[in-house]
Amino acid sequence: MKTRSRTPWLTTDGWLRRGLILLAAALVVAGGSYLVAPSRSNGGGGAATVPGIGAPSTPPLDGTGGGGEAGGLVPPAERVAFWERRVSAAGSTPSYLDLIYLADAYLDRSRASGSLDDLKRAETALGRAAITTPDPKAVQVRQALVAFSLHQWQRSLQISGALLAADPQNLAALGVHGDALLETGQVDAAREEYTILEQLVPSPAVWSRLGRLAFLTGDPQTGIRLVGEAVTGAIDEGYPDSIAFYRFQLGELDRETGQADAAARNYEAALVALPEYVPAMVGLARSREAQARRPEAIALLEAAVARLPMPDTVAMLGDLYALDGDTLHAEREYALVDRIGEVARVTGSVYDRQLTLFAADHDRNVAEAVTRARDELKVRPDVYGYDALAWALFKQGQLGEAAAAAQRALSLGTPDPRIEYHAGMIAAAQGRVAEARALLKEAIAGAAMLPPLQVPVARAALAALDTGGFQ
Amino acid sequence: MSRALRGLAALLLALLAGIGWAGAASAHPLGNYTVNRAVIVRLGPTAVALRYVVDMAEIPAFSELQAMDTNADGRTDATELTAYAAAACEADRRGLSVELDRTRAGVAQWSAPQLSFPAGAGGLSTLRLVCSFGAQLPASHGPLTIEVADTTNDGHVGWHEVIIAADPGVSITTSDVPAVSRSAELTAYPLDSLQSPPQVRTGSATFRAAAGAAGSGSATDPAAPLVRSTANDPLAALVGGPLTPLPVVLGILLAAGLGAAHAVSPGHGKTLVAAYLIGSQGSRRHAATLGLTVAVTHTAGVFLLGAVTLLAGQFLVPERVIGWLTIGSGFLVVLLGAGLVLRAARGSRDSRDHVHGHELPHEHEHPHEHAHPKRELRARNVVALGLAGGMVPSASALIVLLVAITTGRLLFGLALIVAFGVGMSLILGGLAVATTMVRGAVTASGGIASHPLVRRAASAVPLVAGVAVLAAGLAVTIGALARFA
User: Fold this and answer.
1) Which of 2.40.50.100, 1.25.40.10, 1.10.240.10, 3.90.1150.10 is the CATH number of A309-471?
2) Domain residue spans of chain A
3) Which residues of A touch B394 (CB under 8 A)?
4) What ipTM score was computed for the predicted complex, to two decimals?
5) Domain for residue B219, yes or no?
6) Which of B333, B304, B300 shows the shortest CA–CA distance to B321?
7) Residues of chain A neighbouring B340 (CB-CB closer than 8 A)
């Protein structure tokens, strides 16, 4: 036990003592104030590169409690920066694990931004990891995913198929293989693989897939329920990227079933979890237009186009200008879509369903659109491929072939308003009045999915059918 | 398939979700849509020249070309081009912030904008705009600090860089940006495909006019900032670096130093330690126990969290675990604070009853301790305090562990983490000892404590300290809960 009298150096110097007392008091006060601001207390120095440490949470845009969902990992861009530094610091011999983590970070970032460049960077990182990895499967499954994201369906199917042949329970390979099957119209095979997945690892990633499958095959309510479960599961897991994606997916299903308000809430929640998530910006813009909030819709589309000028986003912006009577700006956006198509042709990396639909919607270069749709159908014969071809053929006046393609597009019972609108217009032109009326009614119920300029066309067609005045 | 493997696969599956579909749902992303911006600063003896360069890829260039055509006749004439360039540079000038010694400097246009349309993919036009601005320096000046910020952010993705270089006769002492553009001023982008475009929109430098000091290029070595950025987390950089005896020893010393720095960085409980010990008559032995507990808890915490992250990644996200630990730590502090307050309250009642009045908290070397045994600081409370202080793993230490695992240097990583914990505990323990000494000094007979005012004020110390601990604990707990809710 120490006694007070054994610290004479303190008792003999009053100033020193007073100074130390003041210091101790100041420490108490300062400590209290630091702790009152806990967000500051975590972020010391370079520690910001650790996922989730000190990540600020964004306030929710609405009452959906999105703020809590936003907590968690740092934004993908910071993850990319961290692994890029690691790889770059290692010079010519980066570890294969660093390269794989870097590829994952690129993939995450591309999901938010839609950046093709990030997919190519991921491909490069995986190519380098493949040289030294003792576990080629981990690299290959990601290569299958990159191929899928680049719409290289056959390559994606081939890589993931080979992995599955070696190990039928390779979960990640099952996921990407099933997705590629679905995108290439092999619905039953995709369902089989998703079902295996659900048995092996019931998780948001699987429910989301089954939800999309349910919607495509004509059961939107089950789709909404499953994707809703995926959202809940993702919130429990805490990955903002996943939350954003499932929220976005749920928003799309809401919109396809005519629920613009619910859709808007889901897109907003997606943007809270991942503020730079471009597809959610576009979805929210479409919901805003459906909610008669056009100025907000235009502002959102302008922000989305700046980040990622996709043909259908630019075309929709043009449509909204046109509806506002601003034909000059509308025409400029349409010309920009044409330019995007030219650039895509020149760079050789992109073929695009959106360009086909834009051309058919606006009666621009319809013959070229038909050719593009036929070419794309060869590699991607899913319902949307037949839908695009049907619409382009309709605009070209080839009603018989258009009707056959529309029939294929409807074959799964997919309740997508765009498919219903196109098929309804074709049926009306062929004089199948009852069928046309039913389809157009369905399409108008989900008007938020239609390009804005097509909504009045659909309404006029339905009215004409009702009065017997179509054609 | 083992459980751990299945866990990793499930994690990967979660990663896969949505990537492809975002592509499918929103169709294909297109390249060639970047807008790239560079601010090139040249420091002269009397003025600063700023070149602001914008390089637009084919798609945004096309939008701008359309926007230039103000009379909408389908072509851009010389008048339209000039008007566009002037308006664009004016907008960029307004977006540019230049501060000299923290005072906003006026930025003026120095010469006419240069607008050109270099051919891009397939002969399609791109757009290049160069604006020339400048700012005057004070007539006579010593060392100056310049801070440049490009606040233009229109949402476009692209390459953003800030360059600061010096004319002959001016020397740069420090700079946080390169002196040479990595993209040759947005004309030749480096081909390293595993480096994302830089996102640098601010730069600062300290410089002075120094006749005869020309050619001091080493201060602005363009490689310097890169080196700094890789060393962003010094511990992690160490684990990844070459492994020879000297770096190992230095590394362990550095880790201990970082642990010590970590202990004095905001919010790591040393103020709690001080407050607690002030209010609770802790001894130096308690202080030592405390330091040891913190070191052991912290080291164990990092190991556990590292293991959890690797093995149970699909069930538990590290930041969520850290969140729970923070709540637990805060709750523990609340309990300790509440205990202190209770004890202080009882203590002051005691002091009214006892004629010999122990108003001041002090150690119990005197024969009266039997009268108020509640005031004795129990070892288990000290251990609890140490747990609270050490249970939330440091981010830096966690990175070290994960990096050590991925680079196959587990032992070195473990050694660094232990050193980190030791450094941390030395500071916390030392602080605790200092606190007990200060308190000893206050209570010393014949010292300042004999002044009646001080005696009265000091009698409130245990209560104030207890309230401070309680409040801090509540703040941590509520803050952590709020982030969960």
Assistant:
1) 1.25.40.10
2) 198-292, 309-471
3) 47
4) 0.74
5) yes
6) B304
7) none
